[in-house]
Amino acid sequence: FTRPYTSQDKGTVENRIGLIRRFFPKGTDLNLVSRQEVARVERLINNRPIRKFNYKTANQVFSEKLRL
To answer: What is the DSSP string of the chain?
Structure first.
């Protein structure tokens, strides 16, 4: 979700939506997509290196934050 009046959030959200659309193109009936397929795509996205995080994955950053 984005915070009201913070335009910098919108780019991040749009980027993530574009990433999801690579796997599930616009118009895909998500009711026909299995939970296993959604979980597979979720794993792929969360284990993708992100430049903003110094090329760590979202899972790595999340794990590091939990250890604090």
So the answer is: ---TT-HHHHHHHHHHHHHHHHHS-TT--GGGS-HHHHHHHHHHHHTSEEGGGTTEEHHHHHHHHHH-
